[in-house]
């Protein structure tokens, strides 16, 4: 499967592959893609299998399938090594890709994510939610999730961000979103693999993130020796959209300092 994707910036630029979270699409990364492309990077933002314009397959999509899709896309584009970033579920897919294909990433971004297994209750909740959205669709689910996705400050001051996040969630194909929830419930524990990551890594988290709070980011930072931690003040689970200027500057600084420059 060739994933639907945007490919911005010069083809000779340093490639940066960014992986969206659940239940979003590649437009989640638009502020970063445009910013980095203007600075000479080649930025690839795919729609994951079953999301956006990429077709789905089956009732369960495990994270290894998502990761292999990304490697196939990189191969299709002729990218042997690249900067690899992901947010939330996208970050877990990044961790899966690093486990299975450790030679592909030259630098890593892990944003608002966590490596551990779900509790039994949280795991069951993913299955239950998958069944629910398959039957009911995404609208009510999106409305319930939105107040936790972005901070109160963002909702009060950035109606454009709130509208974008709501649209992505409501427009997500119910089958793809459900398949990803079922697969995500069965993911392995990525914590042991964190210490094996030996490339420059940027760990970012919103200070008001309710899903993956700052303590989760601090844990990832402790486990990865070559990592830098940035806390984006006032942002929730989507700091790249809520505080795009701060997020972009942190990412640009990281790329420069890590040597991943065009």
UniProtKB/TrEMBL annotation:
AB hydrolase-1 domain boundaries: 15-243
Keyword set includes Heme: no
The organism of origin for this protein: Amycolatopsis iheyensis
Keyword Metal-binding set for record: no
The protein's name in its UniProt record: Alpha/beta hydrolase
Entry GO MF terms: hydrolase activity
Gene3D superfamilies, alphabetized: alpha/beta hydrolase
PANTHER family in alphabetical order: MONOACYLGLYCEROL LIPASE
Keywords associated with the record: Hydrolase
């Amino acid at each position: 499967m060739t994933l639907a994707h945007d490919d911005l910036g010069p083809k000779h630029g340093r490639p940066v592959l960014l992986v969206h979270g659940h239940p979003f699409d590649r437009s989640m990364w638009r502020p970063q893609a445009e910013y980095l492309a203007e600075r000479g990077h080649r930025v690839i933002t795919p729609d994951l299998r079953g999301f956006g314009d990429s077709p789905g397959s089956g009732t369960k999509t495990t994270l290894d399938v998502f990761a292999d899709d990304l490697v196939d896309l990189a191969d299709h584009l002729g990218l042997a090594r690249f900067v690899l970033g992901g947010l939330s579920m996208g970050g877990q897919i990044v961790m899966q890709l690093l486990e299975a294909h450790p030679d592909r990433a030259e630098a890593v971004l892990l944003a608002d994510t966590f490596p551990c297994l779900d509790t039994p209750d949280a795991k069951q909740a993913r299955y239950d939610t998958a069944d629910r959205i398959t039957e009911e669709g995404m609208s009510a689910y999106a409305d319930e999730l939105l107040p936790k996705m972005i901070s109160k400050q963002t909702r009060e001051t950035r109606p454009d961000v709130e509208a974008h996040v709501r649209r992505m969630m409501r427009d997500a194909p119910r089958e793809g979103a459900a398949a990803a929830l079922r697969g995500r419930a069965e993911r392995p524990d990525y914590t042991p693999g964190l210490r094996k990551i030996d490339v420059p890594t940027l760990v970012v988290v919103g200070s008001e993130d309710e899903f993956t709070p700052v303590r989760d980011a601090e844990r990832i930072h402790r486990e990865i020796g070559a990592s830098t931690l940035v806390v984006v003040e006032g942002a929730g689970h989507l700091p790249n959209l809520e505080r795009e200027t701060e997020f972009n500057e942190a990412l640009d600084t990281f790329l420069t300092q890590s040597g991943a420059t065009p």
